[in-house]
Structure formats: structure tokens, C-alpha cells
Amino acid sequence: MILEGIIYRYRAGIAWRDLPGCYGPWQTVWKRHRRFSGDGTWDEILTRLLAHADGAGLIDWEVSVDSTINRAHQHATNLPRHTGGPGELHETTHRTP
Fold first, then answer.
1. Cα–Cα distance between 49 and 7 in angstroms, integer?
2. Dihedral angle sign, alpha carbons of residues 31, 33, 36, 41
3. Residue 5: which of 48, 25, 44, 76 has the closest Cα?
4. How many CA atoms lie within 13 A of 7 on its CB side?
5. Straight-line distance from the first to the last Cα atom of the chain, in angstroms, rounded to the nearest whole number
């Protein structure tokens, strides 16, 4: 049930606290996920599950690309603005009297 709870949480895109009670206390599911992620157990579980499912032909490896654009506010950047200050090169015009 713990593994099902972890999978459900990611599939539904919910917070750990919103995990349904049928998977057990959310704290237990979270702690197990944290421990499995830290010691490599979760990677091993996923690798074996993917290998088994791929061998059985249960995985469709098609990819969908989303073209959503997220715009940032003009003040959201940390990059400096170059406004043509003294460090810029300027052309000088020589006038003959």
C-alpha cells in the first residue's frame, strides 16, 4: 500500500497531506518515499518495474510536447541592463570647420 500511495501521489499531483487514508498515514508514506529515494531503493524499484513492463510490451514510449509559455515580469530577472553607459563604444564624428 505504501508504494501505491507514492505512485498515487505523483499521478494525482497532490500534496502529501492530501493523500487518501486508504494508503495509510501520509507521514508514513512520505518517510518511506524519502528513505527509498535517499538510499537508491526507489531507483531500483522503478528500474525493475520498467524493465518488466517493457518486456511485456505494456509501455508506449511516445512523447507529448507541451508548448505552454510562461512569461516573467520585467523585474523578475537578475540580469544587468546595458543602457549605453560609459563602458560602451561610441562613434565620434569629426566636423571640419
1. 12
2. positive
3. 25
4. 8
5. 91
Cα 59 to Cα 9: distance, rounded to the nearest angstrom: 21
Q: Which run of H or E residues covers position 37?
A: helix 26-39
- Per DSSP, the residues of 51-63 read HHHHHTT------
CA-to-CA dists, residue 41 to 21, 57, 93, 95, angstroms: 24, 24, 71, 77
Grid cell in block for residue 2: 505504501
Q: What is the pLDDT of residues 37-90, one digit of tens each?
A: 999 998 998 899 899 999 999 988 887 777 777 777 766 666 666 666 555 555
Q: C-alpha grid cell for residue 20? A: 487518501
pTM for the full predicted model: 0.52
